[in-house]
Amino acid sequence: MNSAIEKRNGRTLVGTVVSDKCDKTIVVLVETLVQHPLLKKYIRRRKKFTAHDPMNECGIGDKVKIVEYRPMSRNKRWHLVSVLEKAV
């Protein structure tokens, strides 16, 4: 099932799980570096995404890969593809 989800043409992001309290849902914090237009410094932008975790396999601190998916609830528009790194 995950291979079919991974082949979709949506955006793919890598982030860290910050919450797994809901059933089959994780909250993933994604950090991106954006260059300031005037100062040319790099600024760290953080955004949280709620993603569908059908097997409840993720824990807090795991590094995961998520992909854009059809809306599953009011806020959930992302789906877990794989766990890249388990937390210690």
Describe the protein in words.
A hairpin with a 5-residue loop joins strand 1 (12-19) and strand 2 (25-35). With 88 residues, the protein is mainly beta. A five-stranded mixed barrel has the order 1-2-3-5-4. It is 6% helix and 50% strand.
What secondary-structure arrangement, pairings included, does this model have?
Layout: H1 2-6, E1 12-19, E2 25-35, E3 42-52, E4 63-68, E5 78-85
Parallel strand pairs: 3-5
Antiparallel strand pairs: 1-2, 1-4, 2-3, 4-5
What features would you highlight for this structure?
single chain; 88 residues; five-stranded mixed barrel; 5 strands; globular
Uncertain segments are none
> In what range is the share of β-strand residues?
over 45%
Helix and strand pattern: HEEEEE
How would you write the strand order of the largest sheet? Answer: 1-2-3-5-4
- Strand count, sense and closure of the main sheet? 5 strands, mixed, barrel
Helix share of residues?
under 10%
Shape: globular
* E-strand count: 5
Mean residue pLDDT? 94
Report how far apart the termini are.
Answer: 27 Å
Backbone CA Rg: 14 Å
Oligomer: single chain
